[in-house]
Design goal:
The structure holds two protein chains of two kinds. By secondary structure, chain A is mainly alpha-helical. Chain A is built from two helices and no strands. Chain B is 61% helix and 5% strand. Chain B is built from 30 helices and five strands. The chains are: A mainly alpha, B mainly alpha. The interface between A and B is medium-sized, with 20 and 26 residues.
Chain lengths: 46, 655
């Protein structure tokens, strides 16, 4: 029972880890995404 | 470029690879190596032949003997060596094709393999575009272009002329054959071979589906497709040789075999021969060998074969500069040659360590290099998967020597990277190892853990594959039009090559003029006249301590036969006063001016600005003196080939 709980806790912890790492990772491209979007809008004459 | 031309380049590269594999197989058999794994045999053979070819070209280039004739002759020798193995190569490919078809029995596997093929093809098409990579335009292609057809002599006006390694010889050979595209295609070949090597490594650590995913992830990693397509940097070869070194080292340990230890050392040395940082590969692998199989014999065999495969650029640098790792040890080995300003600039560019060496900084670095990659040598271009799955490394089988070797080399290189440079992209050589290890952990975890972990791992991988695909599409759309022939080459270069408009203006304005031209901008490849790089940050010659005085600067210009100075838009701060004083005193007279468009910062951001370019003529009295100047014997006299752009290489400044 205890081993199963520990395993469940580790799984949840790992899932939270994955979410946090990926949020922080993709967030750093915000500036680049904005620049690309601006270039795209310029190209479309907006 | 027409479809036919692209196809010809592709067939040429395939034929070259076939030649190398055949010759490599012959050598492989000669030294009585054998593996049951067909792909591994093919990769080991290709690795042996390609690294030997790089070493051979290196020696030819030292004496200026790397000519079209010698290149074709070397290929003929390769063909003769591998003559008996051409049928073996054919069987290897045919059997490999059949077993691949058997392996791809599910639609998911077929889709993954198809996607890998498509992405590698897009990379190939991008590699066919004219050269526009920043470091390539500064030195990866510029130094070989300057060196072409003459005995090797470093140009101290370009500090990075000491940074070229053995893989640069493929670039020199390609330029000698008259095509920078061949050079770019060979870099692409390095990427394809690395993808095959990671597949080979992954197959030994995880099930087929996961190995396919690892290979697909590798091809979609932004740093990988950038390096193997348009960057023009040979670093991808290090990743290939490093992966082969680990695969061979595993065979050297279980069961113990000195022959395989020697081959592991050879590949580790070949990785080291590409770039200084590559020496961490043989160093860490040697420590691993000593841990796994203590004994002097293996260590000596490994070290000797490593040195035999990759020591030559270090010997060359020691010969010419007194420092094998120029300029990083020059302070101690050749203090009379130190230019502290240029050294500071090189350290600033390659060494951004700020952690102070504390353990807290060591713990933070794996996060920072991925999550703040812009400040840590574009480490974010590797994607988030290695960091995401890093906790799963604890689930790996520790009784597998391949796992232990890969962990050791990856960990050692990562630690060295943190201690010396904190530049994420220098981790490219060990990226295949890292990816194979974490995917192996993910494969185990998804098999043994709850549905939550399975779904999260799947979602994170799917998200990255989507991100990688979008990044590749976004990146490729700037390069494919010129490759597919819908955009003229000149227009493409004006749009995509940094400093290209400045270089073409200078080329046009000074066509037919004599004397060297002093330039300060970074991207020199498209200059088609004798030049002298005078940016003190990248020129060992232009020491501000020596030339901040106008008279001393004037003497240097006279000594170097300089007749033109290009200001774009201003002089470098460290030499601004001296050049401005010469201008004020009428020693530099405006000859031509123009407003050209250029990139404001990194090309990726696409921001452009107008740059004012002024060409100044060194006063005629000075020019008359310059014409009477007789170069000293240490300035290397030789003919100037038609495509040479830099004139005579600059020797060390005289005291």
């Amino acid at each position: 029972m205890r081993a199963s709980r520990t395993s469940w806790f580790l799984d949840v912890l790992f899932a939270v880890w994955l979410i946090l790492i990926n949020i922080f990772y993709y967030a750093q491209f915000e500036e680049l995404a904005k620049a690309k979007l601006a270039a795209f809008l310029r190209a479309c004459h907006f | 470029m027409s479809f036919l031309t692209a196809l010809l380049f592709f067939l040429g590269i395939v034929a070259f690879l076939g030649l190398c594999v055949a010759a490599g197989l012959q050598l492989f058999a000669l030294f009585r190596f054998s593996t049951q794994n067909r792909l591994e045999s093919l990769l080991f053979s290709a690795g042996i032949a390609l690294s030997l070819l790089q070493v051979g070209f290196f020696f030819l280039s030292l004496g200026g003997w790397l000519t079209r004739f010698s290149i074709y002759f070397t290929l003929l020798v390769l063909a003769l060596v591998g003559w008996r193995k051409f049928t073996a190569v054919w069987h290897l490919l045919r059997n490999g094709f059949h077993s691949t078809l058997q392996l791809l029995k599910t639609p998911a596997r077929r889709a993954a393999a198809f996607a890998i093929g498509i992405f590698l093809s897009v990379d190939f098409l991008m590699a066919l575009a004219p050269l526009t990579g920043s470091d390539a335009l500064h030195y990866h292609f510029t130094i070989p272009l300057l060196q072409m057809g003459r005995p090797y002599h470093p140009d101290v006006s370009l500090s990075s002329s000491f940074f070229t390694g053995q893989a640069h010889l493929f670039i020199l050979a390609a330029l000698t054959l008259g095509s920078e595209t061949i050079g770019l295609c060979l870099l692409w070949l390095g990427g394809v071979l690395t993808a095959a090597a990671i597949w080979c490594l992954a197959r030994q650590l995880m099930p087929c589906d996961w190995a396919l995913l690892a290979t697909l992830t590798f091809t979609l990693t932004p740093l990988v497709f950038w390096q193997m397509s348009v960057s023009g940097a040979p670093d991808i070869w290090m990743a290939f040789y490093t992966t082969l070194a680990v695969l061979a080292a595993r065979r050297g340990i279980a069961p113990q075999s000195s022959r395989w230890v020697a081959l592991a050392g050879f590949f580790a040395g070949a990785a080291a021969g590409v770039k200084y940082t590559g020496w961490t590969v043989p160093a860490t692998l040697l420590v691993w060998l000593l841990v796994e199989a203590p004994g002097l014999r293996n260590a000596i065999i490994f070290t000797a074969s490593s040195l035999a495969a990759g020591i030559y650029p270090l010997l060359r640098n020691f010969w010419f500069a007194g420092d094998p790792f120029f300029p990083f040890l020059t302070r101690w080995l050749a203090p009379d040659r130190v230019n502290f300003y240029a050294l500071g600039a090189v350290l600033a560019e390659t060494h951004i360590s700020r952690g102070g060496g504390s353990w807290l900084a060591a713990l933070a670095y794996p996060f920072l290099v991925v999550l703040k990659g812009n400040e840590y040598g574009v480490g974010h271009y590797f994607g988030p998967l290695v960091l995401s799955f890093a906790p799963l490394l604890f689930t790996l089988r520790r009784d597998d020597p391949l796992v232990r070797a890969a962990v050791f080399v990856w960990g050692g290189c990562f630690l060295f990277n943190w201690l010396t440079s904190e530049m994420g992209r220098y981790l490219l050589p060990v990226y295949p190892l890292a990816l194979a290890l974490v995917f192996s952990g993910a494969a185990l975890a998804t098999r043994e853990k709850a549905a939550l972990v399975r779904r999260m791992c799947g979602a994170v991988i799917a998200l990255f594959l989507l991100f990688g695909t979008l990044s590749l599409v976004q990146y490729a759309k700037d390069f494919l039009p010129v490759t597919l022939g819908s955009e003229p080459c000149e227009q493409f270069l004006e749009r995509m090559a940094p400093d290209y408009n400045i270089a073409t203006f200078v080329n046009r304005a000074l066509a037919g003029q004599s004397g060297k031209t002093v330039v300060f901008f970074r991207h020199l490849y498209y200059l088609r006249l004798p030049f002298l790089n005078a940016n003190p940050a990248t020129s060992w010659l232009m020491d501000p301590r020596r030339y901040s005085n106008p008279d001393q600067l004037l003497s240097l210009l006279r000594e170097q036969d300089v007749r033109w100075v290009v200001k774009s838009p201003d002089y470098p701060p460290a030499l601004r006063d001296a050049f401005s004083a010469l201008e004020r005193d009428g020693k530099l007279l405006t000859f031509a001016e123009a407003e050209v468009e250029n990139f404001a910062s990194w090309r990726l951001y696409g921001t452009r600005q107008r740059t004012h370019v002024t060409i100044l003529n060194v006063h005629s009295e000075l020019s008359a003196l310059a014409r009477n100047f007789v170069p000293s014997s240490d300035e290397v006299s030789c003919h100037v080939p038609p495509r040479a752009v830099g004139g005579l290489p600059c020797a060390w400044p005289r005291e």
